[in-house]
Amino acid sequence: MIRSKKTMRGFAALAGMAVLSLTAACGGGDDTGSDDSGDSGSAASELCGKNLAFLGALTGDAGALGQNMVGGIKLALQEHNDENADCQIELKEFDSQGSPDKAPALATQIINDDTIFGLIGPGFSGESLATGKTFFEAGLPSISPSATNVTITQQGWTTWHRVIGNDDAQGTADAKYLTDTAGATKVFVVDDGQDYSKGLAGTVKEALGSAMIDEDQISVGDTNMSAVVQAVKSSGADAVFYGGYYTEAGLLAKQLRQGGFTGTFMSGDGSQDPNFVKVAGAQAANDAVLSAPAGPAPADFAASGLYATQAYDATNIFLAAIEDGASDGESINEFIGSYSGDGVSGPISFDENGDIEESKIYAYFVKDGTMDVDNPEVIE
Amino acid sequence: MDFGALFGSLDNFLSFTMGGLVFGAVYALIALGYTMVYGVLQLINFAHSEVFMYGTFAVAWMFIFLHGTESVTWSLGKAAPILVAALVGAMLLSAAIALLLERFAYRPLIRKGAPKLIALISAIGASFALAEAMGLRDRFADKLGLSDNLENYVAPGKARDVFSNPVTIQPKGLFEVGGYTVSDVDLVILAACFIMMIALDTFVRRTRFGRGIRAVAQDPETAALMGVNSGRVVQVTFLIGGLMAGAAATLYMMKIGSTRQNAGFILGVKAFTAAVMGGIGNLRGALVGGLLLGVMENWGSAVFGSEWKDVVAFVLLVLILLVRPSGILGESLGKARA
Amino acid sequence: MSAMSTTLSGIGRRWDGVVDRYNALPKPARLGLVILFAAFVYLLPLLRPPILTTNNIDFGGVMFSVAAFALVAVGLNIVIGYAGLLDLGYVGFYAVGAYTTGVLTTYHWHWPFFLALPLAIAVTMVTGVILGAPTLRVRGDYLAIVTLGFGEIIRITVKNVEWVGASAGIKDISHPNTIGAAPNPPFDRGGMFDVPRLQWDGIIPSLDRDHPTAVLAFGAVDAIPYYWVILTALILVLVGDRLVKSSRVGRAWEATREDEDAAELMGVPTFKYKLMAFALGAAIGGLSGAFYASGQGGYISPDSFPLLLSMLFVAAVIVGGSGNRWGAIVGGALVAYLPERFREFADYRLLFFGLALSVLAIWRPEGLLPPRRSRRAKAVEAEIEALEEGALEGSTHA
C-alpha cells in the first residue's frame, strides 16, 4: 500500500514535469470552478443566448422516454423564445442511453461547457446516482423530471431537485388504494428487479403489511409470464400490484387475464403509457389501475408521453429563474429552492432535500380499451 | 425454496409444465437455425436472433395490413385466415434476412477460409446492425418520404418502443387434464412445432438435398469432390433456419402479441442454450433441448422464484454438459440418421 | 465494391509494412519510440488534438473507458488469443472485480482503494479458478455458451443478493486518496497543482486555463487522473503479459491452442495451463473492474454488466487481432472510442458500429494487428501458393 502510493507520487511528479516542459506554463491559482460568477446585479440578460442541458436516454431501449422529456422541454423553450425575442434559450441534448456508465463522462462535458447554466435531468435513477456528485461539486443546478429513487435526495447534493414524487409517496398511496378503494385483502406483488421497480414494489409491500400474500420477480425483456400467472392463481390473490414499466406490465396483465385472473391489476407511473393498453390488448387492459404522481396534462398541452409534463415544468422553473434575475449557478439554485408555483403536472415547491413538497398521486383507469387520461382519481 | 409451489397439486404441476412446454416449442424452432448452421459450418450464427425478430415484425405488419389498427380481441378461429397469411409473410421475411446474412456476413469469410471466431464477430456486427436498422425504420421511412403512408408500420418517433399486434388472440379452453385447462393456442403451438420438426427431419433424412446437407456436415471437402455443391447447401441451410425462425415468430406473436427491435437477443441466447443442451448440430436435440429448457425455466421459477430461472437454466446446462459433453442427444447433423 | 475492397486491402498492406519497419529498427530506437509514444498517450486528454477529441462528451472520460476497455481486452486476449478458449462471459469477472472493490471500500468496509485493489484481483482470480475448473473440461464451442451462462449467473446473483446492494447497486464508492492537498468540495478540488489543457482553433493551439486538471486529485469532476492511473496499470500488465507469453507457460498455451491432443501427448498438462490462462485473464478483468468501480462516477449496479458487454469485449480482442497484445489494445480502444467519437450521428451510431464490425471482420479476418506468427504463416502460404500456381500454369485451377 505504502509502496504503491510512493510510486504514484513519483509518477505524478514525473507526469507533471512532462506537462510543464511541454506546455511551458503552470496552472496553479484558485480559479477552479467552471462557472464564472458574474455580478448578480447585471440583469437576467446574462443567461440569454445560453443553454439548458438535457441528460438522459435518447436512444437505446429507454430512448422513447427521453424523447418524451425532450418534447416537453422543447415546448417550454419554444414558448419562451417566441415571447422573448431578445432572450433565446436553447437546449443541448446529451444522450446517455440510460446507462450509468456513459453518464459521468457526459456530466463532465456538461460542467465544462460554460454556455450551460442548468440541467433538466438526469432521466433515470441510476445515472442520477452516478452523476449527482459531479454536478454537485461543480455547482450546476439540476431538476429531474423522472428520477424517483428515494435515496438520490438523501446524498446531500444540494443542487439536485426533482419535480416528481418519489417512490415512497407513490407506493404508500398505491397500497392505500388497493386496500381501501379496491377492497383487496390478498395482494400479490410483482416487480422487474430494477432499482425503480424494487423501490416502488418494496414500499407497497411495506404499506400493505399483512395484506400482501406473496411476491415474485420477473426480469426486463421476459415475455413468458406463465410461471408468475400460475403462482398468482394458486395463491388465491384478489389483486396484483406490478412495479415496473409498461411493456412487461402489459404482458403480465394480458397473460393474467387469459389465465383467468379476475381481480384488480394495478401498476405505477412506469406503466402509465398508452402502450400498456396496446401490449395487453384492449380486453385484458380494461379496469387496470395505473398510478402516477402527476395530474392530467391540460387539454391544449402540445407535447405527449410519460414525463413530458414534468420536463415542461422543470424547464419553466429555470426560465422563471432567468426572469427573476438569477445569473449564476448559486443564484439559480437558490431560486429553485424557494420556488413555488403551479405547473401542468401539479403544484411545485421543493423541500430542503430537493424533493417535491406536495405530490398528489393520481389513479388512472383503463376503460373501454383506452387509458382515460382526462379523469384520474386523486388517491387521498 | 418452495417445492410445494410446484408439486403441491397436480393442477399446479401441469400448469407450470405446460406453460414451459409451449415456450420451449418456440425455443426449439429458433434453436433449429443455430443447429443447422452449426452442423454444416461449425459456426455460431449469432445473428439468427435478428432473423427471428424480423419475423415477429412481419406478423404484426401483416395483421395491420389486413385488419387495420383497431385494437380487438378475436378467437383463434376468427384470426386464423390472417394468421396463415402472417405465417407466410414471416417465413418469407425471415428467410430473406437469413439469406442476406449468408451472402454478406458469412460467404466472404467462408470463401477466404477465415478463422471461425472472426465469423462470430461478423455475425455480432450484423446482429447489431439489423436490430438497429429495425429501431431506425421510422428514420428510413422519413428519408424516403414514406412516413405518412407507412405510419402504422414504422411508428414514427417510437420505432424503438414495443410494437404490438392490434389483434389479441384470446385462447379458449378445450379440455381439462387434472384440473388444468389446455387451450387451443397452446395446442396449436405444440402441434405446429412437432409437425415442422418432423417435416424437417424427413427432409434432411430422406431427400436428395438432405443427403447433400448431411454430406457437407460430415466432410465438406469429400462432399465437394463427390459433386455436392457446398455453396448451395450452405444457402439452403440458412434458408431453412430462416423459415423455421419465421414460423417460430408467428407462434410467438400468437401467444405474446408484442415485439420490439431488441426482442431477439434474449430469446436467441435461450435458443442457443437449448441447441447446445440437446446437442448442437442435431435436429432432434434442438427439440429436446428447447422443450427441456422451457420446462426447467418454469419449474425453476416455481421453486426458487422467477428471478432465479435463468440461473436454473444455465446450471442445468453445465450439469448436462459435464455428464454428456456433447449434449443430451449428441452432436452432428451428419450422423443424424435415426 | 471491388474498388473499395482493393483500397482497403491496400491500406492493410501498408499498415503491415509499418509494423515490419518498426520491428526492423534497432532496440534502442524502438525503446525511444515507445517512450515517446507513452508520453503522448499520457498527455492525450490534455493535448486534446483536433479530430481525435470527442466533441459532445468529455474526452478525459472517454479516454478512461478506452483504457479500461484496452485493459480488459489484454486480459481476454490471454484467454482467447493465447490459450484459444472462447469466453463469452468475461463481463462476469469485470463485475466481480468491481463489486469486490465496492464492498471493501464503501459498502461494508472502508479500506483505501489501493489496499482493496490487490484483494479484488485475488478474489477475481479465485472466481476464475472456481468457474474454470468444471467449465474447462467442456471443449470448443460449448465453452462459449457455458461461460456466457456463468456471466449471466454472476449478474443475476448480484442483482438478488442484498449483501452486495442487490438491484440498487453500490453508490458513492470511495475514490482513491487524492495525492496533494485534500479536496474541499464544491469549489476546491485539492491536488498538488493544476495543469491547464489545450484548446484548438482549427490547427492553432492555445492554453485553456479555465478547465484545468488538478494533479492527482481523484474527485467527481475530472476523469483525467483516473485515466493516468488505469493507463499505468495497463502498462504494468503489458510488461507482465510479455514476460508470461515468452515463458514456458506461453509456449504451453500455444501448443494447447494449436493441437490440444498433441500437446497432451507431449506431456503438457493442458488442463492446468488452460486453467491458468483463465485465472490470469480473470484477474486482469477484475483489475479493470476495480478501476471502473472507484472511477469518476463511483456507482455500480447489476445493469452495468450486461451480457452485451461480453460480446463487445470479444469483438475488441478479435477485431484487434487475437493473439497480439497490441492488437487487443487497439481493438479495445476502437470499440470504446468509435461510438463516442461519432455521437453526432446520434441514433445511427450503433448501426454504423455494427456495420463497421462486419466490414472489419471481412476486410481483415486475421484482425487489425495479427500476431507475428500468423503473418509469418501467411507469407509462407502465399509462397507455397505461388509455387503451386506456377506448377499448375495452363491448367484450370478450381
Automatic annotation (TrEMBL), chain A:
Keyword Signal: yes
Gene3D superfamilies, per database record: 3.40.50.2300
Domain of life the protein comes from: Bacteria
Pfam families for this protein: Peripla_BP_6 (PF13458)
Keywords annotated in UniProt: Signal
Signal peptide start and end residues: 1-24
Matching InterPro entries: Leu-bd, Peripla_BP_I
Start and end residues of each Leucine-binding protein domain: 52-367
Sequence similarity: Belongs to the leucine-binding protein family.
Full protein name: Branched chain amino acid ABC transporter substrate-binding protein
Source species of the chain: Nocardioides currus
Native organism taxonomy: Bacteria, Bacillati, Actinomycetota, Actinomycetes, Propionibacteriales
Automatic annotation (TrEMBL), chain C:
Protein name listed in UniProt: Branched-chain amino acid ABC transporter permease
Cellular component, GO annotation: plasma membrane
A Pfam family hit: BPD_transp_2
Organism: Nocardioides currus
Presence of keyword Cell membrane: yes
Major subcellular site: membrane
InterPro entries: ABC_transp_permease, LivM-like
Extent of the signal sequence: none
Membrane-traversing stretches: 29-47, 59-82, 88-107, 114-133, 226-244, 275-293, 305-338, 345-363
Topology in the lipid bilayer: Multi-pass membrane protein
Cellular location(s): Cell membrane
CDD domains, per database record: TM_PBP1_LivM_like
Keyword tags: Cell membrane, Membrane, Transmembrane, Transmembrane helix
